Amino acid sequence: MATVENLPSAQTERPIGFGRLKRKEDARFIRGKGTYLDDIRLPGMVHGAMLRSPYAHARILSIDTSKALAHPNVAAVVTAKDLETLGLAWMPTISYDTQAVLAGDKVRFQGQEVAFVIATDEYSANDALQLIDVEYEPLPAIVNARKALDPDAPLIRDDKAGQRDNLASPTWEAGDQAATDRVFAEADTVVKRDIIYPRCHPAPLETCGMIADFNPETGQLDIYNGNQAPHAHRTVYAHVAGLAEHMIRIKCSDIGGGFGNKVPVYPGYVCAIAGSIVAGVPVKWVENRDENLISTGFARDYVMHSEMCAKNGKITGLRVDVIADHGAFDSTAQPTKFPAGFFHIVCGSYDLEASHVKVKAVYTNKAPGGVAYRCSFRITEAVYLVERMVDALALELKVDPIELRMRSFIAPEQFPYETTTGWTYDSGNYAETMRVAMDIAGYEDLRREQAEKRARGELMGIGVSFFTEGVGAGPRKHMDILGLAMNDGADLRVHPSGKAVVSISAQTQGQSHETTFAQIVAEELGIPPEDVEVRHGDTDRSPYGLGTYGSRSTPVSGAAVAVVSRKVRDKARLIAATMLETRPEDLAWEKGRWYVKGDLEKGAMIEEIAVRAYSGEPMPTGMEGGLDAQVIYDPPNLTYPYGAYIAVVDIDPDTGQVTVRRFIAVDDCGVRINPMVVDGQIHGGLAEGVGIALMEVLTFDEEGNCLNSSFLNYLIPTALECPDFELGETVTPCPHHPLGAKGVGESPNVGSPPAIVNAVIDALHQTHGVDHIDMPCTPARVWAAMQGRPEPPQ
Amino acid sequence: MHVSISVNGEQVSREIEPRQLLVHFIRETPDLTGTHWGCDTSNCGACVVQMDGQPVKSCTILAAMCEGHEIRTVESLEVDGQLDPIQMGFHEQHALQCGFCTPGMLMTARALLDENPNPTDLEIRTAISGGICRCTGYKNIVSAVRWAAEYEAAAKQEV
Ligand code: FES
Ligand code: FES
Question: How many whole angstroms separate alpha carbon B24 and alpha carbon B10?
Answer without folding.
Answer: 17
